[in-house]
Each structure stands twice: as C-alpha cells, then as structure tokens.
Amino acid sequence: MASNNSPKAGIALLTDFGLSDVYVGVMHGVIAQIDPNIQVIDLTHQIPAQNIAAARYCLMEAYPYFPSGTVYIAVVDPGVGSQRRSVAVQLTKGYLVGPDNGIFSGVLSQHHAILAVELTNSQYWRTSAPSTTFHGRDIFAPVGAHLASGIPLLELGTKIDAQSLVTLSLSPYHLMGNRIDGVIQYVDGFGNLITNIPHQAVTEKSWWVEVQERKIPSHNSYSDVNVGEPVAVMGSHGWVEIAVNCGNAGLKLQIGWGDRVRVILEDR
C-alpha cells in the first residue's frame, strides 16, 4: 500500500445513475472505506441512461480542468456483466477507470495514452465475486481509490494495447468548398445542440448554420436574437453550438445526437 504521507490524487466521478437512488452515495462510501482522505468531485450523474456518447463528450470536456494526477471514474455501462473489458488507462495528467465501451474515446482522441491495463487483479476490487450489475461499486470505485492512493497501474491487472480500446464512432466534420458538414455530438440540459465542428473552422469568418433547410444566423451571444429564435454561436466548450434564446433548440428544431448539420461560409 502507498504511504500515508504520500500526496493523494483526487477522483472525478461521472455516471448515469441519477441522484434519486443510493448508487452514487454507495460509490462514495466504497472510496472512503479505502481512503477517507481522497477528495471526490462529482462531474455529473445526470448522463441520459445508457448514453455512452453523452458520457464520452462530457468526460472529454471536463478533463482539461482538473489537477494533474486526477483519477476519472466513468460509469455509463449498458454492457455491465458481459464480456466487455474493465480497464484503467494512464495519461500524462491522470487516469481513466471504467468500462471499455468507447466512453474514454473522446479524451483519448485529444490526449495520448501512456499505458492501459485490463482490471484482472481482484485484490483491488471490493470483492472477488463482483455483482454482474454494479461494477461501479465492486470494481471501478475501489480500483480508482487505490490508484488515487498511489497503487501503480500495472498492479491492477494485465497490460493491454491502448490501441485496442473501444472507440465510439463519431462522424468527423468535413470541409468542402464553402460548406462544413458535421453532426450533433451532444445535447446539454438547456437543449443546446453541440456540434463536432470546432471554433477554428469558423473563426474570423462570416457563417451561418443550415438545419433541415432552415437558415440559422451566427452571433456572439444567445441574446443577439429575439427570445424564442434560434442562433448559432461559438460555445465556451470550443465547438459550434446551436441554441434558442431562452428556449430549447433540441425541441424546437427536433434534432439531436448524431443528426447532421451544415455550416455555410460566406465571402466577406
């Protein structure tokens, strides 16, 4: 075990468990049993149920804002109890712990994996006979706590090729002449539609968005259009975003995850 004097890394926790049941609290309890001095920050537990794509996006967006050494436990796991692997991945600034179902592919598209293991060493699980429906409690929470307490990654299981980790398919954006074709990669709690088209593609250009043959103007802020009107902005997350001023763009435009959008670039 790591020395009690070793600095403790924090844990960032993301799930689709919601807050009406005890699942999240139980994971906190398991972590505290291993080391009550570990700081746990709840990223969100409101990921839509079984929506791996939403979890991929949220984890990718949160990753840059945490201290070096943070352990990210992410559990959106419709394949729990199946043959899908349980994994941990070491990055330059932290660790990822969770199911190998594509949930980490957003982070890994932007940050290099140094080392990856399949979690096969049950010494670091809560029990050697884990539930087939709650790996968050029995495998991921305890493994994350041991990592945060200083246990080396290779002690947790069998080394695997990081290139073998599951990648969640997301169509890339394409620039063709004066148009950029992309998709909606996330819908936030306000109904804002986050595309996969980065700021850099439209910075210092005149542009608008075409959705279902509807022209949506680009502006600097939501309030640059009338209440109830759609607008395209460069969101704080670094992607082109479609919103409705004081409204819900997903409901108004009737589009969501994976739907296609087009940005039109205009000559100045």
Q: Could you describe the 3D structure shown?
A:
This protein has 268 residues and is of the alpha+beta class. It folds into two domains: 11-164, S-adenosyl-l-methionine hydroxide adenosyltransferase, N-terminal (Rossmann fold), CATH 3.40.50; 174-266, Elongation Factor Tu (Ef-tu), domain 3 (Beta Barrel), CATH 2.40.30. It contains five helices and 15 strands. Helix 1 runs parallel beside helix 4. The model is unreliable at 1-5 (pLDDT under 50).
In terms of topology, how is this protein built?
Layout (H helix, E strand, L loop, with lengths): L10 E5 L7 H12 L5 E5 L7 H11 L7 E6 L10 E6 L2 E6 L5 H4 L4 E6 L16 H14 L9 E3 L13 E3 L2 E9 L5 E6 L7 E6 L2 E4 L12 E5 L4 E6 L4 H5 L6 E7 L2
Parallel strand pairs: 1-2, 1-3, 3-5
Antiparallel strand pairs: 4-5, 4-6, 6-7, 8-9, 9-10, 9-15, 10-14, 11-12, 11-15, 13-14
Protein name: SAM-dependent chlorinase/fluorinase
Family: Belongs to the SAM hydrolase / SAM-dependent halogenase family.
InterPro entries: SAM_HAT_C, SAM_HAT_N, SAM_OH_AdoTrfase, SAM_OH_AdoTrfase_C_sf, SAM_OH_AdoTrfase_N_sf
